[in-house]
């Protein structure tokens, strides 16, 4: 299996022997291959920035571990599963921007899989991230 960090963006991704990153686990190999194909597509065909690729890799990696913890397969997650994941992100205090970027990464990933014929429907359809409303700093008119 080719890994995204063995090519163009090698300087940004942790390698198997990096001291801060353990050996990449052999969980959900179909997901791992699909993620690499998606990131190569973004790098080669869409010319996405290296920082975007790194962020998407991390976002998809986080989704993988969330799914693993719950005994789910990333390629078979449902709309409700992803909504639960995003709700957890909000409860953990992730910023609105981070949650939006993660949803954008997931939309792109699942749309790519649909085009490739790997999945039959996109589980991100209809998911939105609402901005938190804040009254801090606002005065009554």
Automatic annotation (TrEMBL):
Transmembrane segments: none
Family annotation (InterPro entries): CB (IPR044068), Integrase_recombinase_N (IPR010998), Integrase_SAM-like_N (IPR004107)
UniProt-listed SUPFAM superfamilies: lambda integrase-like, N-terminal domain (SSF47823)
Highest taxon of source: Bacteria
Every Core-binding (CB) domain range: 29-114
Pfam families according to UniProt: Phage_int_SAM_1
Protein keywords: DNA-binding
Full protein name: Core-binding (CB) domain-containing protein
Organism in which the protein naturally occurs: Kineococcus glutinatus
């Amino acid at each position: 299996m080719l890994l995204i960090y063995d090519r163009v963006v090698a300087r940004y991704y942790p390698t198997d022997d990096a001291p801060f990153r353990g050996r990449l686990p052999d969980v959900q190999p179909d997901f791992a291959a699909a993620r690499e194909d998606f990131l190569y597509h973004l790098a080669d065909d869409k010319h996405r920035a290296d920082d975007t690729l790194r962020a998407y890799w991390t976002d998809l990696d986080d989704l993988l571990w969330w799914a693993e913890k719950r005994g789910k397969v990333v390629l078979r997650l449902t709309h409700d599963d992803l909504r639960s994941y995003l709700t957890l992100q909000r409860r953990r205090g992730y910023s609105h921007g981070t949650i939006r970027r993660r949803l954008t990464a997931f939309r792109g990933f699942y749309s790519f899989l649909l085009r490739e014929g790997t999945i039959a429907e996109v589980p991100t359809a209809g998911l939105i991230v609402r901005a938190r409303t804040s009254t801090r700093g606002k005065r009554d008119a």
